[in-house]
Amino acid sequence: MKKKAKPNLWPDVSILVVAVLTITAFFRGNWQLGLLIAAFAVWGVYAVFCHLLPFIREQLYRKEARDLRRHYEERRIKQQVLSDVDVSDPVSVVLLRHANYRISASLKAVYPDATWEWCTSDPAKVVAKGGVGRIRLHGVPEYNYAEVATDQEASIHFQLLKVVPFGEEESPAGNEQPVQKPKRIREVDPQVWYEQKGRTVLTNLIADLNSRGHSSLTILDDGNISIMQAEKEIKKAAFESVPERTYWPRLIKVFEREGIAADATDQGLVLSW
After folding, report:
1. Structural domain that includes position 227
2. What is the pLDDT at residue 32?
């Protein structure tokens, strides 16, 4: 297919020059002025329709073509990304695995050797819709089961239980021992604690201390903070509560993702910036 030649303005300019020279050579006075105005007006209208409007249309076509190419390129990349995602596992299975990791993390924070398995027939339903399920514990002294309670807000709570056949551990008469109450463990997610209770308080603290020349603070177990000022330790209230030390390794990672250096010491959690 033969490529269409672009319109050239210079031949048309030469025609205008010839017309102007002819008018100035053969006409004088008002006739010359009127003819010059008419020549420029006619040439201007011709140039608009033959050169300016085609140029504008060409630029619009080019912009539309670029937009189409960008759209199809973004669509192609999106389809490629989606094709790389493994969607073979149902959502309920993914939620169950996530809940399993949270339960394991809570148990191992108190009992490092703990392992467990579900006793409930459909644990995925308990996790997805909320409810109470039972797990069998291994490597947890004094307890062999736990009841796991979930809700629609993604909270997980569980109670440790010791289940024995009736009459197996009867105490001799007159030597009865008090029944041990189930131990209740409340899981603490350091990321959730930071977002809900820690971020705002810590941001304000760091801004204030940094403006006064401080570059570190120590978070104590009771939620207070301590800073050094003129070689003297000053304590002040800051947080309503702080996760227990068993959660500090995960809390340190949360701080590091926020760009805050953290280190666990005997005194407390030292943050520096």
Report:
1. 190-272
2. 83
